[in-house]
Amino acid sequence: xxxxxxxxxxxxxxxxxxxxxxxxxxxxxxxxxxxxxxxxxxxxxxxxxxxxxxxxxxxxxxxxxxxxxxxxxxxxxxxxxxxxxxxxxxxxxxxxxxxxxxxxxxxxxxxxxxxxxxxxxxxxxxxxxxxxxxxxxxxxxxxxxxxxxxxxxxxxxxxxxxxxxxxxxxxxxxxxxxxxxxxxxxxxxxxxxxxxxxxxxxxxxxxxxxxxxxxxxxxxxxxxxxxxxxxxxxxxxxxxxxxxxxxxxxxxxxxxxxxxxxxxxxxxxxxxxxxxxxxxxxxxxxxxxxxxxxxxxxxxxxxxxxxxxxxxxxxxxxxxxxxxxxxxxxxxxxxxxxxxxxxxxxxxxxxxxxxxxxxxxxxxxxxxxxxxxxxxxxxxxxxxxxxxxxxxxxxxxxxxxxxxxxxxxxxxxxxxxxxxxxxxxxxxxxxxxxxxxxxxxxxxxxxxxxxxxxxxxxxxxxxxxxxxxxxxxxxxxxxxxxxxxxxxxxxxxxxxxxxxxxxxxxxxxxxxxxxxxxxxxxxxxxxxxxxxxxxxxxxxxxxxxxxxxxxxxxxxxxxxxxxxxxxxxxxxxxxxxxxxxxxxxxxxxxxxxxxxxxxxxxxxxxxxxxxxxxxxxxxxxxxxxxx
Length: 627
Fold this sequence. Notes:
With 627 residues, this protein is of the alpha/beta class. Residues 48-294 form the Calcineurin-like phosphoesterase domain.
């Protein structure tokens, strides 16, 4: 059993509570008079929306890959246990008859940590086993949560089980039945909140998820659920909420604020559409934004039809921040409008502000910490179990600028699995195809130590729950794929030396903040090396030179079987060819588990068995130096 201290019961920095904790977290109090004033016929009040998003299975401030308390260069803490402490502090501070509160989440809750993975794949939740995130979120007391795209990673049956364990609804107005086009999850919930004596305000909470699910989780949702655009569905359901008498409409949207799509034009609906929602759909008052993993403390977007401002707030991710959104409201009595028509009494928003609070200033909530402790300890024992040994240390630190053995290992395991499977169940023609494999450097901090290798080491290397497929591609497809992947690099002149930051993470139209590491794929051969240079002196699209398989030039009409993950094969990242190529293998085996099983079965990882230098960075044909 694992014997180190596994409970991050007290943060490195967290010693405060109550009002002092809020002040340290960056909280700015709104004077009580701002919501209490108002004439007898025009009562005022305030609705506070507390929001989280992209929790990704984080309950504790714990890094399961490092087996240590979480930390990063910005001194962030993570986990719902800490957020709950902030939530309780705000709830305690925001009291009074004219104050109402809601607590919402904007999606991506059940994927992202070994804790989440364990209760989806190793010991799946059922009637007797509750998901740790359900336990924690129920203790928080959410009013509703939007579906995130990662909610679908483990299939709809497990998602439905998770849904049944929650004390609040999962909302997805744009997760619809392919036949009826009606939502298969609740599209919204209506809350009747007390504001003052004998007065109530009706608040509609609309949940919207990401259209990209149709691509990213195609295997789990195809033919079962469709995902139209956020704007398109909001134009249906916001008017429905208003017809049902909602004074205020709040959206929890698992879609970033700044309009963009990682899948290009593969879908007619943008991935990140929260600003479009605010601009194009009248009568939305505020949007809790998710998916993009950025911090937006307070953003106002003007609706193009009404001219009214819509409040947007995104509280970073993993529980690093808590959103506090304040809507000042005023009661409007029944009156005659400009056209003489009777206007019923209603509440309206007269002002809106938001802020985000930093969870690294507080201790974890003891109730959540206690409730999830057993599950946490079980997972720590699991991830620290030894499955084999490595003959030397293997690191991914330089995987973005050179061919390293630890990425070669991923490609080797994937390609070997594909070759064996096709030989057993494929056609003779497919079995004769040379096998290639793609892999990306998901985590530069990943390392296999010399000596014992644990589940945690593998999980730190392959951090996503992708499954393995193989597709039939041509030599021309391979060249196009590599050219697309090489967009990851910035164009430079000369041979350096350069820093990694000077040559990697190039900004593109689809990645304005820089191409992420997970969208840089290298391609390797199994029985013979696939070798090529990436010439950074050339513009994107003209960088791959010397492409050869087994020392022979790769011609356009050559055919290969190429191992890919389901994210790529379903169109993730917009890579060419693979999403439309013939699938020759698809057993829906998770790649991380495949690697764990390989190490368990073989016992020893020896780079001499699989590693070779297949690609390099050059400038006008000369190797470059990257420090």
